[in-house]
């Protein structure tokens, strides 16, 4: 089991910390500029908190930097942890941004949408990369402890490509939910009526390729229904634009 220092107090830090504790690791410190959130997580995990890098513990085995992408390089400038393993959690940031912090630097990328309010901890595939054999081994072992077989070594190029796909299936899909919810509100409909359909569609993708399970008027070539929908969407221009684009893509067989 590892002694872990978590740098950050946001969504990723909170959920990974809970995952680490559930796997039997010890979080010896939470460090964040947001002292209130750091204190809250430290209280939850029965550990200490700090809000200045100068106060970072020197007794950890692994330092997990769960901060925004643009903050990684800034924080790295003021860190020196020789012989320690340190990793950031960003998909699209080169691990070399941490090379001056420790030779044993790397990446610990959780491929999941995480929120600190989560009651039940989700499955989290983890992709790791390390600059040295020590970093590779430690990060892979740490990832395996919380993700089991859903972990693997990765490269920056692979993570960036995975991140693109993740944005499409998560962020873009959620934006469609947002548009549909707004449409329902304006049309005096209950968005919750769509929940069973959302759940069925999400479950189906595990069993059938999306290319084989597409339904709806566009795939059927039902122009009459499409035109009725577009007429209804005249008062919802943003959703009408999205509806038109996706219908065309589906009819072309490019979706």
β-strand percent reads 5-15%
Mean pLDDT over the full residue set: 95
Order of helices and strands: EHEHEEHEEEHEHHHHHH
Q: Mind summarizing the main beta sheet?
A: 8 strands, mixed
The counted number of beta strands is 8
Q: Within the largest sheet, what's the order of strands?
A: 3-2-1-4-5-6-7-8
Q: Figure out the total of helices.
A: 10
Residues in helices, as a percent range: 40-55%
Note the quaternary state here: single chain
Low-confidence stretches: none
Question: Structural class per helix/strand content?
Answer: alpha/beta
Radius of gyration equals: 22 Å
Coarse shape: elongated
Distance between the terminal alpha carbons, to the nearest Å?
45 Å
Walk me through the structure.
The protein is of the alpha/beta class and 255 residues long. Helices cover 47% and strands 15% of the residues. It contains 10 helices and 8 strands. The protein has helices at 11-22, 35-44, 69-76, 133-147, 156-186, 195-204, 210-213, 217-220, 223-232, 237-252, and strands at 3-7, 26-31, 48-50, 62-65, 85-88, 104-110, 126-130, 151-153. Strands 3-2-1-4-5-6-7-8 form an 8-stranded mixed β-sheet, covered by helices on one side. Strand 4, helix 3 and strand 5 form a beta-alpha-beta unit. It is elongated and about 70 Å long. It starts with a strand and ends with a helix. The model has no long low-confidence stretch (mean pLDDT 95).
């Amino acid at each position: 089991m590892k002694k872990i220092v978590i740098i950050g107090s946001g969504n990723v830090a909170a959920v990974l910390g809970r995952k680490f504790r559930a796997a039997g690791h010890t979080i010896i410190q939470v460090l964040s500029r947001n002292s209130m959130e750091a204190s809250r997580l430290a209280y939850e995990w029965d550990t200490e908190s700090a809000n200045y890098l100068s106060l970072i513990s020197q007794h950890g085995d692994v330092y997990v930097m769960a901060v925004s992408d643009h903050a990684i390089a800034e924080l790295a400038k003021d860190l020196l942890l020789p012989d320690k393993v340190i990793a950031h959690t960003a998909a699209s940031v080169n691990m070399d941004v941490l090379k001056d912090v420790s030779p044993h630097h790397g990446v610990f990328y959780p491929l999941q949408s995480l929120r600190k309010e989560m009651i039940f901890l989700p499955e989290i595939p983890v992709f790791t990369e390390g600059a040295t054999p020590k970093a590779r081994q430690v990060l892979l072992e740490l990832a395996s402890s919380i993700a089991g077989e859903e972990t693997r070594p990765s490269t920056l190029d692979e993570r960036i490509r995975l991140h693109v796909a993740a944005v499409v299936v998560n962020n873009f899909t959620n934006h469609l939910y947002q548009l549909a919810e707004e449409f329902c509100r304006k049309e005096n409909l209950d968005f919750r009526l769509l929940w069973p359909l959302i759940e069925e569609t999400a479950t189906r993708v595990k069993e059938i390729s999306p290319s084989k399970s597409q339904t709806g008027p566009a795939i059927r070539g039902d122009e009459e229904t499409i035109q009725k929908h577009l007429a209804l969407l005249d008062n919802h221009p943003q959703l009408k634009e999205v509806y038109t684009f996706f219908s065309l893509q589906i009819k072309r067989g490019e979706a």
